[in-house]
Amino acid sequence: MTPAGGYWVEGLHEAGMKEDGFDVQFFPRWRTQRHQFGTAGYAIMKTAKDKDAAWEWLKFASSLEAMRLVFPTPNTTPARRSMVNEQLYAGRGPKHWKVFYDTLDKFPTTGPIPAPPSRPPSRPP
To answer: When comparing pLDDT for 44 and 125, which is higher?
Structure first.
């Protein structure tokens, strides 16, 4: 058992696990039942030389066309809900793939996993 998102699906498939050999579910309830989600995105840095070109890239990268190119297999949970469907998980599993987005819909206390702070590397003594 591991807390994880859809990125495990393709790895398990590549390792030879059959689609009915694993599944996903909500975190079990004990005293509480809070879920978390992770996400990522692009940014335009203040130091970017061509911010207009960067903006055009961001618009393309978030399009359905671009995401279909990047996510032909379930190697993560796509940011576009419309891409999380039976077609994406066909032949790979898991049976209850809807949990990946149902977590956001059914548990209003679900919160983001904060990214670690960005710090310059420390120097050895």
So the answer is: 44
